[in-house]
Amino acid sequence: MKGVRFQPAELSVHPGETVEFKNEDIFAHTVTADDGSFDSGLIQPGSSWKMTVQKAGTLAYHCTPHPNMKATLVASGGTQVKERDAGGLPGFTPPHSPQELHPILVNFTAALLPLALLSDLLGLWLKRSSLHNAAAWMVLYAAIITPLTGAAGWWWKSKSAGALPPEIIAVHAWLGTSLVLVFIALAVWRWRLYRKNAVPTLPYLAFAVVAVLALIYQGSLGGAMVFGR
Questions:
Q1: Does one domain contain both 157 and 190?
Q2: pLDDT tens digit string along 4-16?
Q3: Residues ≥6 apart with Cβ < 8 Å to 225
Q4: Are the CB atoms for 83 and 61 separated by under 8 Å?
Q5: 3-state SS assignment for residue 12
Q6: Span 81-128, pLDDT tens digits
Q7: Which residues constitute the domain of residue 129?
Q8: Is the peptide bond before 94 cis (omega within 30 degrees of 0)?
Q9: Residue 104 shares a structural domain with residue 212
């Protein structure tokens, strides 16, 4: 494990052989089977973990704190040991775990509110009502998506079994929950202005700026957990 990835990404072994996973990275990682058949727990930098392959088959595994780290172990009765380097792009598979769903939803949340704020500011500057209308809808969409983002985050936390940094994940989880309420409040506030055909007020814009700053800080905490500081 190095550079926040498994090297190699695919390894062929024989049943009965022992595989050692060495953490040569600067972050702690896990070796966790996708089907739950094995889990190394956190492997600290400079440490290693061994497992004996019990039977033939293909085992997909990942790192719990860093879900972008994925690899495959192929156990067969052949004589050739094949390694495939970590290069290349993986094929598309629909997201089904919180580690996959949460980052996707975060992308929408992180984009919609700043864009809505920018659209409102441009609307005030250019005096374009269409920009204010777009901002109102973006805030509404953000308020709809953000609860799903928070739910996926808590789901991920519950499945991590302490693999994520406890101090950071505690702040990240509760700040994320607070942002769900903030986004809903912003959407109600902004929608009332939209229904009255009114431009956003200074208190609303100030509240939106604070929410965007909190969102940026929330993203930095998420990055610290996944990629380290």
A1: yes
A2: 789 888 888 888 8
A3: 65, 164, 165, 168, 169, 172
A4: no
A5: strand
A6: 444 444 555 566 777 777 778 888 888 888 999 999 999 999 999 999
A7: 98-227
A8: no
A9: yes
